[in-house]
Amino acid sequence: QAQLVESGGGLVQIGGSLRLSCAVSGSISSITYMGWYRQAPGKQRELVAAITSGGSIDYADSVKGRFTISRDNAKNTGYLQMNSLKPEDTAVYYCNARIGLVGKLGIYAYWGQGTQVTVSS
Description:
- The chain is mainly beta.
- The chain has strands at residues 2-7, 10-13, 18-26, 28-39, 46-52, 57-59, 67-72, 77-82, 91-101, 107-111, 115-120.
- Strands 2, 4, 5, 6, 9, 10 and 11 form a seven-stranded mixed sheet that branches.
- The chain starts with a strand and ends with a strand.
């Protein structure tokens, strides 16, 4: 089994910055994918940014140039640096990881519990 724990959310003013972290723990053999998703009230969950084990990175158009996704493989931790935050970035942010487990075949998808990001004026 694996667990994802997110941190770093909070209240920030327009134009401010936050850094989200997603720490993966458990009997992990590999992490093939880490993604950040967000869900605002009344809206569907959407992909914000993703990074694969091969280094491929993808961003939603709405965050390109403002957000940066990265990962520290040694720490099994992913990050989302969010700059120039806007009110429309307000949402619960979720980490998703696709993980290989020690002693098990296959890749398993896990979600974190979510962390609230609120951008206010």
